Amino acid sequence: xxxxxxxxxxxxxxxxxxxxxxxxxxxxxxxxxxxxxxxxxxxxxxxxxxxxxxxxxxxxxxxxxxxxxxxxxxxxxxxxxxxxxxxxxxxxxxxxxxxxxxxxxxxxxxxxxxxxxxxxxxxxxxxxxxxxxxxxxxxxxxxxxxxxxxxxxxxxxxxxxxxxxxxxxxxxxxxxxxxxxxxxxxxxxxxxxxxxxxxxxxxxxxxxxxxxxxxxxxxxxxxxxxxxxxxxxxxxxxxxxxxxxxxxxxxxx
Length: 253
Description:
The chain is mainly α. It has one domain. 76% of the residues lie in helices and 0% in strands. Its main location: membrane. Belongs to the ABC-2 integral membrane protein family.
């Protein structure tokens, strides 16, 4: 491994970030779908969904943020797949730089791009009436949960990005991730769901993450949901990282 691992990663991250800044349509596209969903649910379905005293835009925003991330990481898989097929990794192996530097560059680029998309979505939500009574520590806690969620999904995206045989295969993995919030507490209370669906919705990770973020936005205690959300994010991150690095070693050995 190169003794200048961090500097190599920074340089390679600059390269992948330039690709993103030269095609800002990827960030815009990532934000457009969640924004369209937000408009649809708030202005079309919102009136028919009972969320008690909580305004629907405040209720459903956490789920929209998770969908934004799931949509964004599909581009990470696409960019990684493109680099694999174009021979970039092979060329880097002949240079005195860290072999996994490019992999980490894609992960860091995913973080930056997704944070920008999230900022756009939150900005539109504010224009639609979203308000939060959260103090600075609560906002930092939300940022921390979203940061871990981005990392976890990004490392999942690395696996198809390295192993897929087509562009469609590299990006298709994100479809279940985008769909998962719909079977959770993100858009409707789980109490309204039939038995088996309710059980699945209450046990899967998105519900605890959404509930934790919703409680933090409301300025109240997140309770056990915050610790369950953190456990899910960290657990998914560790497992995904392990499989991603195993896939990387097989592809570059």
